[in-house]
Design goal:
It is a single chain. The protein is 15% helix and 32% strand. With 203 residues, it is of the alpha+beta class. Strands 1, 2, 3, 4, 5 and 6 form a six-stranded antiparallel sheet that branches. A six-stranded mixed sheet has the order 10-7-9-8-11-12. It is elongated and about 60 Å long. The protein starts with 5 loop residues before the first strand and ends with a strand.
């Protein structure tokens, strides 16, 4: 029998690694899934085409629930996976579920930090920590008003728009969550790290 080209990705591991940016349904909503409900899974697959994505996210309709997991059939038509088609049987576990057709009773942390902010490349891509942050009145509805830098960037660096990114707060927390307890503060505040690495509120 030929090996299948796809496998199910462990979504729980992704959620553990990236809690601020990757939504994983709560245990409470997963425990409510029954026959007839739908669950979305990540189907990883092998491909020789560099233009193809590495996975497809697709729905499975549940036909059986057991102690060791769920059984169902694929309720999508795969675009890239050649050896998987609509109505094919799929067995999966709680760790594979990335969404469901039920309303989750537990608020998602990804929703809490979905609003956007400005942050420098030094933090987002180069592994440096936030050293200076301030919150101004938002420019747009999706803007949190927060602005983050290391505090060591030059004026020339900051004047180059290619060095600044407009991303979700969650994307910044993914790189440095030492700031998380300050994000509820009001507009007009500013913080900088002292020599001991603690954030000090500026006048």
């Amino acid at each position: 029998m030929q090996n299948k080209s796809w496998s199910l990705e462990d979504a729980q591991k992704i959620a553990d690694d990236f809690p601020y940016t990757f939504y994983k349904p709560s245990k409470e909503v997963v425990s409510q899934l029954k026959v007839g409900n739908q669950a979305k899974l990540i189907f990883e697959f092998e491909s020789d085409d560099p233009e193809h994505p590495r996975a497809e996210r697709m729905w499975v309709e549940i036909t059986e629930v057991k102690d060791n997991g769920f059984y169902g059939y694929l309720d999508n038509d795969p675009e890239y996976i050649m050896d998987l088609k609509y109505k094919d049987p799929v067995a999966f576990e709680c760790c594979h579920i990335i969404d469901s057709d039920l309303k989750d009773p537990i608020p998602s942390i990804t929703d809490k930090y979905i609003k956007r902010c400005f942050v420098t490349n030094n933090i987002l891509y180069d592994g440096e920590r936030v050293g200076y942050m301030y919150r101004e009145e938002p420019d747009q509805e999706d803007d949190s008003g927060w602005r983050f830098s290391t505090g060591t960037e030059t004026d020339e660096y900051m004047e180059d728009s290619d060095n600044i990114n407009y991303v979700s707060l969650g994307a910044v927390l993914r790189e440095d969550d030492s700031i998380v307890n300050l994000l509820e503060r009001e507009c007009g505040v500013a913080f900088a790290k002292d020599e001991e690495g603690n954030f000090i509120e500026l006048d």
